[in-house]
Design goal:
Layout: E1 9-12, H1 16-27, E2 32-36, H2 39-45, E3 51-54, H3 60-65, E4 73-76, H4 82-94, E5 99-102
Parallel strand pairs: 1-2, 1-4, 2-3, 4-5
Amino acid sequence: MADVDNEPVVVIGLGRFGSAIALELTRRGIEVLAIDQSTKLVQSLAGHLTRVVAADCTDLDTLRELGVDEFYRAVVAVGTDIEASILITSMLVEMEVEDIWAKAVSDHHG
């Protein structure tokens, strides 16, 4: 099996938690695809991350168009919208992303 420690990572949700993870991964030399619905957040991180895109990640076709299904590892850092977080995570499972880390804002959400 290939060394997955250096595999590119998709980070969905660029609030404080998601942007901190994306920036740290980039600092460590990991290629990052960072996605958020907020154009403002995307623009603020554009010069600091490998690839950052404004998109609606609750749409399966959008995730596929962005190539998310090609990633081994994903971080779902959406915390404020529990429904979106669960939907995105379930779509990543459907796309067979093998290693998914999802932020949970409560025990029930987890």
